[in-house]
Prior knowledge:
This protein has helices at residues 2-28, 45-53, 65-81, 94-103, 118-128, 142-150, 164-172, 174-181, 192-201, 251-265, 281-290, 320-325, 346-350, 365-373, 383-394, 397-412, 417-428, and strands spanning 58-62, 87-91, 109-112, 132-136, 155-160, 186-189, 209-211, 241-247, 270-275, 295-297, 302-304, 311-313, 329-332, 354-357, 378-379. The chain is an alpha/beta fold.
Amino acid sequence: MLLNILYNLFFPLAFLFFLPGLLIKLIRRPGTKKNYPExxxxxxxxxxxxxxxxxxxxxxxxxxxxxxxLALTALQAWRKVDPQRRFVLSTTTTxxxxxxxxxxxxxxxxxxxxIDFLPFVRKAYRVIQPSGLIVFETEIWPNLLRTxxxxxxxxxxxxxxxxxxxxxxxxxxxxxxxxxxxxxxxxCVQTEADRDRYRMIAPDLADRxxxxxxxxxxxxxxxxxxxxxxxxxxxxxxxxxxxxASTHPGEEKMIVGAxxxxxxQYRGALLILVPRHAERGxxxxxxLKSEGFSFVRRSTGEHFGEGKTDCLLADTTGELxxxxxxxxxxxMGKTLAGNHDGQNIIEPAVLGKAIVCGRELRNFxxxxxxxxxxxxxxxxxxxxxxxxxxxxxxxxxxxxxxxxRRAYDAITAHSGAIAKNIELLEKLF
Length: 429
């Protein structure tokens, strides 16, 4: 009780401290913003009416793009099992909001999740009147959960994981996190290691923690999937197409450097660069200019340089899957140049792509181990190793095809988590 009082006492002060950074991100980051006042529980009259008409929906919450795609996968599968069930999907980021609005099934309302200030949270619950709350992966907010508990609503944490870094923080502040985790009626974790970690934080929750697998293994190419048309960007017959997917600072310089050297040996190679944060587009445009590449910037449609286009700078939101699908070689971001956490390596695998990445993906350790055991991924550490891997794959289409088939077979063999999770949720709700 005391911790709860202190949290609600100091949260507004902490929020004011972080508010400038939040506003900068809101301005710079693309995505849907017109309904951002919902973060302060300010809903339009029209939105209130639509939420009321859902008649006590299940509230699903996902923070960012990755979690939102998971929530959409779960939501669509659950509706096939129970077509009468109604849903509200909330996100935290503007980019996730845009993706949710683009892909959400008809009849599902999309909102921004309220900031975890008690008056905002309480008002949101009054407006939504949910029948329960489902949180995806790691988004744990005390007031959001405690209010659901006070209202007697079932709550679940789905596809939960706990990274090495998170584990240290959770253990250090166990006195704070353990009571919050006890608000969940069910915690469905990805692996046995995750279950052990959650048990270490709150041992009395052992009977509520279930290993349900990783829903990411169940992600597939969406129905009616539209591929981006690269013929308007690259010269016809250019190949192979290499993509730097969900890249982070430091990686783009390494990728561009390796690509420049590759082009000295293999002139036909093309590059798509997709930064994890689209607002870094201007910074990466300067990098490509300094390297002398001819490129198109997706967000503005501008062409820089002379001659045929070498590179597409895809500084937009919600198009990564499409660009992965039209590429031949995938360099997975957040794995190079000192980055070790990793982005979603499962997506290129289910598309059957040849994958190159760093040697450690802390956030996708299980998927990486599966691909490594299947000999379905090339790992590199330096720019020169990356260049050699790109040259080997560029000059050998059969090797690209072989790696892609192995990746697809290895990942799809581990699907089935979505069925386990929905079975648990059906019982709980």
